[in-house]
Amino acid sequence: MERTLTCPRCHADLLAEQEYHGIVVDRCPSCEGRWLDSDELDQLEATVASTPAERRATIRYGERRSELLCPICGKAMTSFNYRAYNLELDVCDDHGYWLDGGEEGRVREIIAERVRGLARAGDAEASWSRFLGGLRRRGSSRR
Ligand SMILES: [Zn+2]
Ligand SMILES: [Zn+2]
């Protein structure tokens, strides 16, 4: 599909089909922002080694009207805090997401952080049950 989109941030023409970690996005040559179609935020998250369970949970917090317009339909987009982090993204419910320059890297960092956090929680649980097991064994089979 041929299309030329205009950057919602600085109004330069977006360059179509720039590859980023294997997904094809529209990139602004001037402000380095990126336009992701609706399913491409999922794909971006999936570029970080993780399972669907680790990427589950609410993505949009604190929604409010954005001053940016959707490059496809021209309607005001919605700003939100990505996964309740201090990272503001913009979304058009019908078309996709706008990420300012560098925000795509932040999205990947947050997913990586989340995966590490869940792994840590799993470790804590495992050492707790080892600890309890140790208590139960103590006295009878001291080594
Ligand atoms: Zn731009
Ligand atoms: Zn739209």
Entry keywords:
143 residues; 7 strands; binds zinc ion; single chain; elongated; alpha+beta; 7-stranded antiparallel beta sheet
Q: What do you see in this structure?
A:
The protein has helices at 40-46, 52-55, 103-137; strands at residues 15-20, 23-27, 34-37, 60-69, 76-82, 88-92, 96-99. The chain is an alpha+beta fold and 143 residues long. It has a domain at 15-112. Strands 1-2-3-7-6-5-4 form a seven-stranded antiparallel β-sheet, covered by helices on one side. The model has no long low-confidence stretch (mean pLDDT 89). The structure holds zinc ion (ZN) (2 copies). One zinc ion is lined by residues 7, 9-10, 12, 28, 30-31, 33.
Provide a brief overview of the structure.
The chain has 143 residues and is of the alpha+beta class. Helices cover 32% and strands 29% of the residues.
Number of helices: 3
Per DSSP, what share of the residues sits in E-state strands of 2 or more residues? 25-35%
Succession of helices and strands: EEEHHEEEEH
User: What is the end-to-end distance?
Assistant: 70 Å
Bound small-molecule species: zinc ion
- Cα gyration radius (Å): 21 Å
Low-confidence stretches: none
The major beta sheet can be summarized as:
7 strands, antiparallel
